[in-house]
Design brief:
The protein has 326 residues and is of the alpha+beta class. The protein contains 11 helices and 10 strands. It is globular, with a radius of gyration of 20 Å.
C-alpha cells in the first residue's frame, strides 16, 4: 500500500441556487441553509448579510458600503483509499473558500480557504466514539488517542500536492467560542480582527484541532457581539491581508448569527470577562429558519455512517498508516 492517501478536490459555487450533494454532511452550516421550503430565501438572506458585513468592516474608500461582494465556493475533498487498486474514495472533509469581488477596480481577489470545517470522521469521534467511551462511567473522560487519526488525515491533506496545486495559502478555520469557558479581554487589538480574548482553560475542541496542527486565537472584530475562534497555521496576523481576513469574519460571523444567535446576535456586547451562553434570551433572531435540535441528531447519524463505510472496513489500513505517518 502507498504510504499516503491521495485527495481529489471538487468545487461548487455556494449561491442562491446551491443544492447539497448526496455526499455532503447535512449538518454543515451551508448545507443546512439549503434545505426546506425557504431554502432560496435563506441562501439569499445569508449572502446579503455576508456582503453587508464585509462592506461595514472594509469601510475605507467605500462611501456607499457597496464596493465589495463575497463569492463562496464549497470545496469537497475526497480521500482515495487505494489499498487494492479499486480506487474507493471517502468524502473526507468540506471547507469553504472565499473570493472577493472589488466592483470599483473590477478585480476578483482570492480570499481564504478553510472558514467552515466539516468532517465525517470528526462526527464519528465526537458523536459515536466519545459517547461509547463514556457510556456507564461516572465522570467524563477522553480516550488517549482521541483525534489522532483525524489530525493526521487533515495534515496529510494540507501537505498534499492536491492542496498545493489548488490553494496559495494555508487554511484558516473560524468557529464559535465555547459556552462552557470564560474569556478575558486583553490589551491586544488588531485593526481588522479586533480585540483579543484569552480563554480560562483549553477546550476539547482546541485539543482536537491542535492534533490537526492548528493553533487558536480569539478575537472580537469591530461591532461584533462576541469573539470568534480562529484556528490557523503560521502567523494569523501577518500571513493574511486585511481583505482576506474580512472575508472570513463576514462569512463565519454570519453563519454564527444564524446558528448561535444567543451569542453572536446578542443585544449586549461581550464585556471584559465574557461567559457565552446559549440560554441568553436577550438576542435577536435573523430571518433565517434553522433547526438546531435536528442538527445534533444528524451528527450521530453521520458519525455512524463514517464508522460503517470508513472506520470499520479500513481499520487495519488506517491503524498501520497512522502508526507510520510522520
Amino acid at each position: 500500500m502507498n504510504n499516503d492517501f491521495t485527495f481529489a478536490i471538487n468545487s461548487i459555487a455556494f449561491d442562491e441556487n446551491y443544492q447539497p450533494a448526496d455526499s455532503t454532511r447535512i449538518t454543515t452550516n451551508f448545507a443546512n441553509l439549503a434545505r426546506g421550503e425557504s431554502r432560496q430565501e435563506n441562501l439569499r438572506n445569508a449572502l446579503t448579510m455576508i456582503n453587508n458585513r464585509f462592506n461595514a468592516i472594509a469601510n475605507w474608500d467605500n462611501p456607499k458600503a457597496d464596493r465589495y461582494s463575497v463569492e463562496l465556493e464549497i470545496i469537497s475533498v475526497d480521500m482515495n483509499i487505494d489499498s487494492e487498486g479499486k480506487g474507493q474514495s471517502f468524502p473526507s472533509i468540506e471547507i469553504l473558500k472565499t473570493n472577493i469581488v472589488d466592483h470599483k477596480t473590477k478585480q476578483r481577489i482570492e480570499g481564504i480557504v478553510g472558514n467552515n470545517f466539516s468532517s465525517y470522521v470528526r462526527d464519528y469521534d465526537f458523536s459515536v466514539r466519545l459517547l461509547e467511551h463514556n457510556k456507564g462511567k461516572a465522570g467524563f473522560s477522553v480516550p488517549e488517542d482521541f483525534g489522532d487519526l483525524h489530525g493526521k488525515l487533515f495534515q496529510c491533506f494540507v501537505n498534499s500536492d492536491a492542496y498545493r496545486q489548488n490553494f496559495a495559502k494555508l487554511p484558516v478555520i473560524c468557529l464559535s467560542v465555547s459556552d462552557n469557558k470564560t474569556y478575558h479581554q486583553t490589551e491586544n487589538q488588531h485593526p481588522i480582527l479586533g480585540v483579543e480574548y484569552l480563554p480560562n482553560e483549553s477546550s476539547l475542541t482546541e485539543q482536537y484541532f491542535k492534533k490537526m496542527g492548528l493553533k487558536v486565537r480569539y478575537f472580537m472584530p469591530p461591532h461584533s457581539a462576541a469573539p470568534l475562534a480562529f484556528y490557523f497555521f503560521g502567523d494569523l496576523l501577518n500571513d493574511y491581508s486585511n481583505l482576506e481576513l474580512i472575508s472570513t469574519i463576514s462569512t463565519m460571523e454570519t453563519f454564527q448569527r444564524i446558528y448561535r444567535p444567543e451569542i453572536y446576535n446578542a443585544n449586549a456586547v461581550a464585556g471584559k470577562c465574557y461567559k457565552p451562553s446559549l440560554k441568553n434570551s436577550d438576542h435577536s433572531l435573523t430571518q433565517i429558519v434553522y433547526d438546531r435540535e435536528e442538527r445534533s441528531q444528524l451528527a450521530i447519524k453521520q458519525g455512524k455512517f463514517a464508522e460503517e463505510v470508513f472506520i470499520k472496513p479500513y481499520h487495519d489500513i488506517l491503524e498501520q498508516w497512522s502508526a507510520n505517518y510522520a
